[in-house]
Amino acid sequence: MSTPAATSWASRIAASRAIIVCGTGGVGKTTVAAAMGVRAAVESGRRVVVLTVDPARRLATALGIADAAEGEREVRVVVAPPTSGETAGASTGELWATMLDPERAWDDLIERTGASASDQAALTANPLYRQLTRRFAHAQAYVGLERMCELLDDERFDLVIVDTPPSRNALELFDAPRRMEEFFGGRLVRWLTVPARSRVLSAMSRPFYAVADRVLGGSFLHDIAELFRLLQTVEPGLIRRARRVTGELAAATTTLLAVTTLETAPLAETRLLAAELTSRGTPLSAVVVNRVIPERFADSSLADDVRRWTVDSTVVEQVAEAVSETPTVVSRVLRGVAERVEETALRAEMQRDLLAGLEELAGSSVIPSTDAPLGDVAGLLALSLYLWP
């Protein structure tokens, strides 16, 4: 089931160069991103690449990432137009998939700063470089967006879908470029690199380094100073790249899509994200609500029917005979089923109210809870039909 509003954001998606799928961890972002990629390639004939972060094994297998050769960056996914159903006869585009490799993404970013080859090599060889890039706040979120920009510049693709890293706070993704710019263009880096730029201060700091080296061991402080000196050589390029990322996030051709469930924490986070992005002038284009109880279970009369069966001796005896069980056991099981059906109907009714409240945020689509297999392209295509009609 898709809401009528889904058609409006589907048209926006069709005109997008980038789709950023965000939300808290565990809500199904990766699956939604993959399903959208399959649909865009099969139905719209677009050349799509899905950039994902650590997908589940069956999804990685479906996208062909699990068995990718070492060093292979983008993997071509085999898709074919369906022979029946809503998308029968649709044109076939191209679908590619790639996983984010944070370490390689940082090295690529340093290469794109325009610094000299010797400075780049010295920086990536610095023993503290990896620690900094791993521990830098929002590092994975930022290099994911950097990788998005790299793929946008790749002529092989006309649509990039980004499955953002799992995070408690989805706003971290949108704050990452600003934090990068503030850090590398801020006073801390400049202060730490003063000794390397000033002979007088460098001479004055030698006794301090000598004592610190005896306490900390080896050339620890020298490595720190050298790291920040090298970082300053790439500072202009890093700031320029951060501003490019900020521009892509706000571009008219970028669609911001939030995935949530109706559980309290993800739903609250989605509302906060929507409000904050609206205040920044880059509102959400759509919300996908995952794992919703299907509408048919909201009918409380189902529970009433089951309860009637529990006291209908004829029904109980017929069921008992069919399953080779005693009427007492069958009656007890039916009462348990009635309670579960009644509970599900109540939850479905509550979810209906929550869904109505989401309409004010953006156009929304609903993906019902399902046990359907998503381990192949066909399963992802079937799932995508809930996203837009």
Strand order of the largest sheet: 3-4-2-5-1-6-7-8
User: Secondary-structure element order, as H and E?
Assistant: HEHEHEEHHHHEHHHHHEHEHHHEH
N/C terminus separation: 9 Å
The 3D shape can be described as: elongated
Unreliable spans: 196-201
**The biggest beta sheet, please?**
8 strands, mixed
How many individual helices? Answer: 17
Helix content: 55-70%
Strand content: 5-15%
Gyration radius over CA = 27 Å
What structural category arises from helix and sheet content?
alpha/beta
Mean pLDDT across every amino acid position: 80
Number of strands: 8
Describe, in plain words, how this protein is organized in 3D.
The chain is an alpha/beta fold and 389 residues long. Helix content is 58%, strand content 12%. α13 links the parallel β6 and β7 (286-292). α4 packs across α7 (139-152). It is elongated, with a radius of gyration of 27 Å. Mean pLDDT is 80; it is low at 196-201.
